[in-house]
Give the backbone structure.
Amino acid sequence: MTRPLILPLDDPDDPRAAPYRHVRERDLVGRDGAFIAEGEVVLGRLIASPRHRPTSLLIAAKRVEGLAPILRDLPADVPVYAASQAVMDAVVGFHIHRGILALGRRAPDVAAPELLAGLPEKALVVVLCGIANHDNMGGIFRNAAAFGADAVLLDAQCCDPLYRKAIRVSVGAALVTPFARLDDGADLAGLLEQAGFAALALSPQGAQALAEVRPAARTAAIFGAEGPGLPDALLARVDTVRIAMASGFDSLNVATTSGIVLHYLTRG
């Protein structure tokens, strides 16, 4: 363990605060391989992440002492800028009541075939198609981590799991769960079959009820966006599964669906 490098930051215009300036506006345009993580639990997961690395922290001075147990694991070369609440709010452009922000550097991208090939003989993969809502993305990653999924695959239309809100909703799970993005037009069904995964696609019209499924050693659960669902061409090539529910309803929020499915597939 090391003593963190605590540096005072008293001026909102300090150049060292530039990566944190106007956070919401920067969320929209991207950060060129970097991301913002916020909150105590998320910070702890970033510091512990085997994939991504913190490059600096901006913390309300009143929070520094209480964060000492987490900051002791921070790499010695990562600066911690301590600011008053007023200065911090001025930097980010709104009241940041958690008082904890970190700038992280993304791990190099891993190709989907490479990620699948490196998984154990018994593995569970979550596959997402067209998930564009960051709350849903964060919720699915949280469920994937909670139920021990080995990896997440994203199609080209999915939103970024390392968007600030998605990381926050995932409670940092997006920072520790391996994921890979498919190229646009990739043959998802073929990729999973080649890697030895039995694919289960969730659909209100699924041919098999979830309660009847017996997961294979290598199983991939595929989820689509609410509304459009999964493409017909994909559904025609994989096993389809439905969740039984009360008359008059045939679908759930996709994050909720993922929690139910992953619980069932990992129930022991």
